[in-house]
């Protein structure tokens, strides 16, 4: 509540000699107070995390390539890419388009599936309680089914379908695609340890998810994961050195060593076999696992995720006796990342906007926000279970504080930000209407079945100022700049394009927050009323 300001007859003199009445001053102070009051109220809005979870899983159906199933819920989409791999004599139909175009890039697709699986492994009960487990399993399986197809031989993995340059020249619906569907692979002579290892991590983590509900499929995934890891480790090299076409789009800047550690730890978690943990321990220093102190986690840079998985093992205590020194080094680097997110890492912190959003880089910054939210929430759970606290250079931090910061990033995404905009498309009153996405920006073929050519889409649809005719529900766009500003224009791809790996970490985060909100509401309903009758005595 704003307090009434009383200044009496006092007058305030400005720097230029002018006199401002106390009435004017009070009005300005009150208006300023209203501004901050309204912003703080917006920041305290209780969001519908269950709705956010539901919508986030719809997005993956919009990104499907291949022959769509009978239970497809995103009705404006249709079959596409039905001849993928035909020229090469292999069936590469299926999988996901990574963003607003129609190339199937293996590395970000695999990371997307790994994060979906990690969400289900870590927060599966919460996802199930929200009624979204089946859709989560379907989202994961749509990716892993494709990986099984793409892994045609133990030492062969198809890395990409389509060409980024020619694809970006056209603006078409996926159902109308006329661009070349050239397929690219890695093998013994053209290795790609980063891609093979990330795909191994995706299949290993997914095997955990399907262990109870589909044991045969889980076993199949695990076999592929183990073969891919052996391939990645035996024939070492970065996949962008073998496939020139991918360099401008998903080049492996961090190299392949982080993915080898990442895959080893996921295989250890999936199998319990010591050899995989030994690999991560023995190669910890030479692969940078205990050397790199990171301030980001993404489809390219996996070190923070590696370090948090290793720290979990130490916190659980099962492997402390054999590998305590190395696991402690991993944990130290994991906590460097967490402390940097919390601005408690001395002078080496991740930048924040004035509105409170983590800011790593201009292009698609939201991918770093969502991945951070997941890692923070997962690590807060690990610490709480071990009854430990985080020790940062700026002092100790309780798990609850880590959790609350992860929640603040989530709430920022959902609209608690200076723009009062939800960056989850379809959620809330105000969200991006002109997402940089070919299929969403052109009228569905089910409403207008006339063919739309390569450049016709640019002429007739790309430059339109109107909102997209199809809402890309559940997509998380690139998001605002370092000043919390967002421009909802289709051509503003750095801010309005969405990617599958933006949304995938949030499946677990939304589920966890929803479960706590439900528990809080149930607790309030079960509490007896605190009011009691008041007796009135006559004086």
UniProtKB/TrEMBL annotation:
Active site: 436
Alphabetized Pfam families for the sequence: Glyco_hydro_9
PANTHER family: ENDO-1,4-BETA-GLUCANASE
Family classification: Belongs to the glycosyl hydrolase 9 (cellulase E) family.
GO molecular function: cellulase activity
Swiss-Prot/TrEMBL GO biological process terms: cellulose catabolic process
Keywords: Carbohydrate metabolism, Cellulose degradation, Glycosidase, Hydrolase, Polysaccharide degradation
Enzyme class: hydrolase
Name of the protein in question: Endoglucanase
Claim: Hydrolase is one of the keywords in the record: yes
Species assigned in the record: Rhynchospora pubera
Superkingdom: Eukaryota
Positions of the Glycoside hydrolase family domain: 49-509
The reaction(s) this protein catalyses: Endohydrolysis of (1->4)-beta-D-glucosidic linkages in cellulose, lichenin and cereal beta-D-glucans
């Amino acid at each position: 509540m704003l307090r009434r300001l009383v200044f009496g007859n006092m007058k305030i003199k400005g720097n230029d000699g002018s006199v401002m009445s106390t009435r004017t001053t009070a009005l300005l102070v009150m208006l300023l107070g209203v501004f901050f009051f309204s912003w703080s109220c917006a920041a305290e809005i209780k969001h519908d995390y269950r709705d956010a979870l539901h919508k986030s899983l719809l997005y993956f159906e919009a990104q499907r390539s291949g022959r769509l199933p009978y239970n497809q819920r995103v009705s404006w989409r249709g079959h596409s890419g039905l001849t993928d791999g035909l020229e090469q004599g292999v069936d590469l139909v299926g999988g996901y388009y990574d963003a607003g175009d129609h190339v199937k890039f293996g590395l970000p697709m695999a990371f997307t599936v790994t994060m979906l699986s990690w969400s289900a492994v870590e927060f599966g009960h919460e996802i199930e309680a929200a009624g979204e487990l089946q859709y989560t399993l379907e989202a994961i399986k749509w990716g892993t089914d494709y990986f099984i197809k793409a892994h045609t031989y133990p030492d062969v993995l198809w890395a990409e379908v389509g060409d980024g340059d020619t694809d970006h020249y056209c603006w078409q619906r996926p159902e109308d695609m006329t661009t070349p569907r050239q397929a690219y692979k890695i093998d013994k002579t053209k290795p790609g340890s980063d891609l093979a290892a990330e795909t191994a991590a995706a299949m290993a983590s997914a095997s955990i998810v399907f262990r109870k509900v589909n044991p045969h499929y889980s076993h199949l995934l695990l076999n592929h994961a183990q073969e891919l890891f052996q391939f990645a480790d035996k024939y070492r090299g970065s996949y962008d050195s073998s496939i020139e076409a991918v360099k401008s789009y998903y080049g492996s800047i961090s190299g392949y060593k982080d993915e080898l550690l990442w895959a080893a730890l996921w295989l250890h978690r999936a199998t319990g076999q010591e050899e995989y943990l030994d690999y991560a321990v023995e190669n910890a220093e030479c692969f940078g696992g205990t050397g790199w102190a990171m301030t980001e986690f993404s489809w390219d840079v996996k070190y923070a995720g590696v370090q948090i998985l290793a720290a979990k093992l130490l916190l659980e205590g099962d492997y402390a006796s054999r590998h305590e020194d190395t696991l402690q080094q991993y944990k130290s680097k994991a906590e460097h990342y967490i402390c940097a997110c919390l601005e408690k890492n001395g002078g080496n912190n991740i930048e924040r906007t004035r509105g409170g959003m983590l800011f790593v880089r201009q292009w698609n910054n939201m991918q770093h926000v969502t991945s951070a939210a997941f890692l923070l929430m997962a690590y807060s759970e690990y610490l709480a279970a071990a009854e430990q606290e985080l020790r940062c250079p700026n002092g100790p931090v309780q798990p609850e504080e880590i959790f609350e910061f992860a929640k603040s990033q989530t709430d920022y995404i959902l609209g608690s930000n200076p723009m009062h905009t939800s960056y989850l498309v379809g959620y809330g009153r105000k969200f991006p209407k002109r997402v940089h996405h070919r299929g969403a920006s052109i009228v569905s073929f089910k409403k207008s079945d006339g063919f739309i050519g390569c450049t016709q889409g640019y002429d007739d649809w790309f430059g339109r100022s109107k909102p997209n005719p199809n809402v890309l529900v559940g997509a998380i766009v690139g998001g605002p700049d370092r000043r919390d500003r967002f421009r909802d224009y289709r051509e503003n791809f750095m801010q309005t394009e969405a990617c599958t790996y933006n949304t995938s970490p949030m499946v677990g985060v939304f589920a966890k927050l929803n479960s706590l909100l439900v528990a809080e509401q149930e607790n309030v309903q079960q509490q007896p009323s605190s009011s009691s009758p008041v007796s009135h005595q006559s004086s």
